[in-house]
Design goal:
Two copies of one chain form a homodimer. With 610 residues, chain A is of the alpha+beta class. Chain A folds into four domains: 168 residues, no CATH class; 183 residues, no CATH class; 83 residues, Maltose phosphorylase, domain 3; 102 residues, no CATH class. Chain A has 14 helices and 23 strands. The first copy, chain A, has a six-stranded mixed beta sheet. A six-stranded antiparallel beta sheet of chain A has the order 2-6-7-8-13-10. A six-stranded mixed β-barrel of chain A has the order 15-16-21-19-17-23. In chain A, helix 1 packs across helix 2, helix 1 runs antiparallel to helix 14 and helix 2 packs across helix 3. Chain A is globular and about 75 Å long. Chains A and B meet through helix 10, strand 14, strand 15 and strand 20 of A and helix 10, strand 14, strand 15 and strand 20 of B. Strand 14 of chain A pairs antiparallel with strand 20 of chain B, so a sheet runs across the interface.
Chain lengths: 610, 610
């Protein structure tokens, strides 16, 4: 098993470009917008733990703790790059509140402190350990940012309680958490503070998960929370996507920390099952709102796509961990696919509103059917919201964007991997690395390495790229162009052909049968009704016609393609020959992540092939 | 308004061919099979009205009365064509039981006699008037078949109670039935026995339906049972399809009986809205199981298609009524479309099992997702059943098949319309009409009219037919080839080109975008997985390649077409150029109505166009 290390974002400074713009928006607008809406909805005040049935306060939700934990983590990430006194104060107040309301035995959970204190550790689906997991991640980030270890110490007492109740006494009503998260959090904590109790507890939760768990009861019957098989026997991705990918993250981390090859094999198979059978072109996963879950291979409907923002983030997190233990460009390819598409679509261009679901098709006319009590299939909303009742996604987006530098480099003793092409400077292992590029607006990337003589540079050649050139001698290996660094000041330029590409889906994806999608580099494009004076559903694209690169929107070029419009006459069915009466049309394509920023509109990623 | 008359099946004798075979199977197998399963499930015994909460008997369902009523009606239709002593005895016993358990004020309803007697006429959704409607239809048929008017008299007392309670005293808890049916039944009765009270009651129910109904309450808010607007203001088909089309039948009948042109206009618009925006290629309607209802225009998903057998029958009934008051071949076209496809698919080739839902696509792999408690979208079952909990469809099929002769001829003073091409002999209006044809296996139809000199013969030119010839001078008028009958023994031959045709859908039907379906004459074809050693979902059809007519299956030819198979490789997404690696394949097409007679299998009506 390979044992690369990840270069953390603290050591990576973005120096401009697309992602720095998004990080700036995230820092200056989004993190504050999330705070404001979390305050409005009572999530901050809930940490005062003074809700009673008689109070006017909103009743705390079982995972409000985690909403704020992810927000605090976001703030901590920002603090690493510069002072944020107001955000610091808001976060610090919550950390203090947690300490103030921690129970004498170490327990902390808002809902089970004020709403149902009698039901501590009683229901597996109550997210107590999930909340603790997010608090641990927040505390790790807080310590890294501020050096303050009190948050950390508070949670350590809670972890000790969990070790006693779950691992030693086995006195809880369940064995493993209903929503995974604490496993990866404990392993993250263990890397920071290598106390074996953290590793042991994480491995305990991993190893106990499955039908062998005596306390599982009915939960064993389904795949919803990955309890259908022992984790090392799981080779197909099943159930709730976020739960699944958080589990797989922990499995990958555990494999890295323990050298457990059975875990590695399971992780490889799970990753391939997702990305070769169950992933949207945008990197979205979880095609059904039923259980927010994976369904069956190739079941990827576009209009009812669930494709939760958190699930795409979780997939990126899983892929990032895999590239450390199994160096292959396919992992960073998936990170890239999710970042530019299914994750970024989750936040509006003005940075203040969010999608929980990220459909690949919207037909506004079909939304009429949901307005009748006759019902109809559930369709995702067509405009982003500033907050949701279940608002897990917004702070997940903010923490990801704030720590995006985590995804750029991995390194081994001799090897340096450039996983994502983002203009930046980084210093590690005695090297200074500078990346200059306007990627993905432009396909040229220049990497300068100072002090790396003798290293081997691995430049990812994206899976979507069919033509590229490199200024230095190189050979291709598992998705990377490998270049030997032959001098102390070494510069190499790699250029990727960014010609727009029409993409087809595996024919077994019924929803995309006979259709094409337009991509340019890693960016998936879409057509919106607002740009077209005709129904997009009556249009078909001509993949032979040239696609023109046009003005930017949302920071990246728009594209213009040609197609044909079918005459949508009266009636329903015609001889095929009659249906060929078509007129040429021009189609405008915008980056998928920018959809729904100009009001509700029809949307198509996959268009019929003319 | 035109005022044709319908030639009833009593005057029409089938003389062979496809439909006579189906009628024979219906008579000799299906009617008995339905009786057997209705006995097994307690539906016959329920008429003894001796269920109690303590009894071992199954609790009667609120519309078991109607299940048996349609079965009795089927038996009565058979009795018109020959003796059926066993069926007669079974039906007669139920008629006697109804009389025996009729309440002193005339009321009869099993459920509200034995289960909830305190709730007579209290809940609009309890189907009491719907059941009475079906009993009236049965009594009319029974009288026509046997001359026995006691059934009739029994129900007349019940009708008098309904007139008193609903129309005069207005003492029921609701004004109009939640499930329409009694309206068309009363108008059928009125034609047989022109007592104005029947017409008045039917018109009362029609006129009171709508938001102006003071007792409507919440029901007014939805379209589910067509109470959203007064009937004359309804111009789009909404809500539960069977309810809707039964209502539209009554509206058309009332228009015919009263000359009400506002009703005629509404009916025309409703028919066009259905058939030009909301009807499957098979004639199925009601695309969603939510409310078993119409949804929005062009929303016609193939895999989740509800397309209830009863709804297709109800559409045929509506179309039949329209061709009487608005002579246009489009109505009989729809009758034909439903008969050969969406209705006939409702019963197995061996005549003993039934589909309630009639999907146009089955992907067995997708059914796996329904096996997980994570759920997934509901999909129709893949094999017919002998009986359902809600078993309205089987006796609806049997009564339709037994009375199919009703759909062949309409006539005016001077005009004779041949609406459906079925080999038969008929005598009416002093004429003997003989139709000879092997339609739709063959496209030639010979009509001989004896005693019709001076009449005008209207031979329907099906909407699907693009080329035809007629042996006599004719001109085309509203979908008919009009031929003057110029002598007492007059024969004309019309020949329709039966070359298989590839059909495309209106581009706004998203589910069929980029796809084609194969038809031959009125028959829609499909491909089943069982006939193909590859996934049908990876295949695309070539509409330029010749389609061969092959051996029969289910009484009609199968077809063989050519297509291309996409290499379904690993992975999900490829450059469009790579997806063009295809190999030629031969595809077998069977008539749609024969699908699922050889075990569960993948099914496709609409295939990708190569």
């Amino acid at each position: 098993m390979a044992q690369l290390k990840n270069i953390p974002f603290q050591q990576v400074d973005f120096t401009g470009g697309f992602w720095q713009d998004r990080q700036t928006l995230n820092r200056d607008v989004t993190v504050g917008a999330v705070e404001r809406r979390f305050r409005d909805t009572g999530r901050f005040a809930a940490f005062d733990c003074n809700w009673t049935p008689e109070s006017e306060l909103p009743r705390p939700h079982i995972f409000w703790d985690s909403d704020l934990a992810k927000w605090i983590e976001s703030v901590a990430f920002l603090l690493q790059k510069g002072p944020q006194p107001a955000l610091y104060a808001s976060a610090r107040a919550i950390i203090d509140a947690i300490a103030a309301h921690q129970q004498s035995d170490g327990y902390f959970n808002i809902f089970h402190t004020v709403v149902e204190p009698e039901n501590r550790f009683r229901y597996r689906d109550r997210h107590e350990l999930y909340c603790l997991g997010h608090l641990i991640e927040a505390a790790v980030a807080w310590y890294n940012a501020t050096g303050e270890h009190d948050f950390f110490d508070t949670l350590d007492r809670y972890i000790d309680l969990v070790i006693r109740v779950f691992q030693k006494e086995k006195s809880a009503a369940f064995t493993t958490p209903g929503h995974e998260e604490i496993e990866l959090a404990l392993l993250k904590l263990y890397r920071l503070k290598p106390d074996k109790k953290y590793l042991d507890l994480a491995l305990f939760f991993l190893n106990e998960r499955g039908p062998q768990d005596q306390l599982l009861g009915d939960w064993a019957k389904d795949k919803y929370n990955q309890s259908h098989l022992p984790v090392r026997q799981q080779h197909t991705a099943e159930g709730h996507c976020v739960r699944a990918c958080y589990l797989y993250c922990a499995m990958a981390d555990a494999a890295a920390l323990t050298g457990d090859t059975a875990l590695l094999t399971a992780c490889r198979n799970l990753f391939d099952d997702i990305t070769e059978k169950k992933m949207y072109l945008t990197g979205g996963i979880g095609s059904s709102h039923h259980g927010e879950a994976f369904t069956v291979p190739y079941d990827l409907p576009n209009d009812t796509a669930y494709a939760e923002t958190c699930a795409a983030i979780a997939l990126a997190m899983f892929a990032q961990r895999m590239q450390i233990i199994d160096p292959d460009g396919k992992y960073a390819d998936v990170v890239e696919r999710t970042l530019y598409n299914g994750i970024l679509s989750g936040v509006s261009l003005d940075g203040i509103s969010f999608f929980y679901e990220n459909p690949l098709e919207i037909c506004l006319a079909d939304h009429e059917k949901n307005r009748s009590v006759n019902g109809g299939d559930r369709l995702p909303i067509t405009q982003r919201l500033e907050v949701f009742d279940c608002s897990c996604c917004p702070p997940n987006v903010t923490r990801l964007l704030a720590s995006l530098g985590d995804y750029v480099f991995t390194a081994g003793e001799r090897d340096l991997y450039i996983q994502q092409y983002i203009p930046c400077r980084a210093s590690f292992d005695g090297m200074d690395v500078t990346v200059k590029t306007a990627y993905p607006a432009d396909g040229t990337v220049t990497v300068a390495v100072h002090g790396g003589n003798g290293k081997r540079l691995h430049l990812r050649v994206p899976g979507w790229c069919k033509a590229w050139t490199c200024s230095a001698p190189c050979k291709t290996e598992r998705g990377y162009a490998c270049v030997d660094v032959t001098q102390d000041d070494f510069t190499v330029t790699i250029t990727f052909d960014m010609t727009p590409q029409w993409v087809a889906a595996n024919p077994l994806v019924k929803a995309d049968a006979g259709k094409l999608a337009l991509t340019r580099g890693p960016v998936v494009y879409c057509a919106e009704g607002v740009d077209h004076p005709f129904s997009l559903f009556a249009a078909a694209v001509d993949p032979q016609a040239p696609v023109e690169v046009k003005e930017s929107y949302g920071g990246l070029p728009t594209l213009q393609g040609k197609g044909r419009l079918s005459a949508a006459g009266d009636g329903l069915y015609y001889p095929a020959s009659e249906s060929e009466k078509q007129t040429p049309v021009t189609l405008r394509f915008i980056p998928y992540f920018t959809f729904a920023n100009r009001g509700s509109s029809d949307l198509l990623v996959w268009l019929r092939r003319a």
